Amino acid sequence: MRLAGRTAVVTGAAQGIGRALAQRLAEDGAAVVIADLAGAEETAARFNAAGHRALGVRADVTSAEDMARMAEAARAAFGGVDILVNNAAYFSPIVPGPFEDIDPAEWRRVMDVNTLGLFLACRACVPDMKARGRGRIVNLASGAPIKGVPYMLHYVSSKGAVIAFTRALAREVGTHGITVNALAPGFTLSENIANNPDHVDKFREVILRSRAIPRDEYPEDLGGAVSFLASDDAAFVTGQTLVVDGGSAMV
Predict the structure, then answer these.
(1) Domain for residue 69, yes or no?
(2) Would 141 disulfide with which of 94, 162, 168, 205, CB 3.0-4.6 Å?
(3) What three-state secondary structure class fits 184?
(4) Are 183 and 242 in contact (CB under 8 A)?
């Protein structure tokens, strides 16, 4: 129960990687705010039925009003935010292809969710952390910008921005006892990706051959890393990007 007495907000937590991360934080004792466009309340109900403390909030990370409401809901229910996991991302609907074929509207959508959403969630939750004199922010990046994965230039660019955002924000808030780190998964078989041939057929076999541990990655593989970065064990770790991909990208 390393996170007992802490409150964690996880965006995009009603399914996939986000749900697995929220589950791990709840198992470690945190009260969890599950924020998502759909399914947040139902997911929180399942967590509560299992004996955890959870609150579901329907929220769009690209909306400043929704992010402020999410943080206020966390304060009302659990007293404030100690941990923020910025997991929400636009990925599974993308059809990989040459960069010349990317629709500018899709580029903007990817950037809005993957970078603006990060900024708005942090802006809403950091005041609670400053008031407490401590906090943990974990931003979901990707191994893709580290490796230079082709055919998804907008997504790869957005996740490279997440890494840069992480380093810069760590410099700004470190004096308040707040750490900011990024977690970089590899190609992860969440339910949306596992059932998407556009991604599985394009990337899976190539990525498996690149890994030192040659197996598929699942959302649960990320739980231990997030738990560590959210805990007091990582109190002197900030501005870092932790790659969890079975040894495909080694940095």
Answers:
(1) yes
(2) 162
(3) strand
(4) yes
pLDDT, residue 204, reads 80
- Annotation says 155 is catalytic: yes
Q: Which residues does residue 83 pair with via DSSP β-bridges, in sequence order?
A: 8, 136
Instruction: Pinpoint the alpha helices (H) of the chain.
Output: 16-27, 40-49, 64-78, 104-111, 117-132, 144-147, 153-173, 191-194, 197-210, 223-230
- Quote the CA–CA distance of 20 and 34 in Å, as a whole number: 11
| Torsion angles phi and psi, residue 97, rounded to 5 | 180, 175
Give the count of domains, the chain: 1
> Could you say which of 90, 151, 155, 218 is catalytic?
155
Cβ atoms of 56 and 102 closer than 8 Å: no
Which residues span the domain enclosing 149? 7-243
Tens of pLDDT along 224-245? Answer: 999 999 999 999 999 999 999 9
Note whether residue 251 is domain-resident. Answer: no
250 occurs within a structural domain: no
Comparing CA positions, the residue from 3, 131, 104, 125 lying closest to residue 59 is 125
- In a domain? residue 2: no
Q: What's the predicted TM-score (pTM) here?
A: 0.95
Look at residues 115, 110, 111, 41 and name the one whose alpha carbon lies nearest to residue 73. Answer: 41
Amino acid letter, residue 61: V
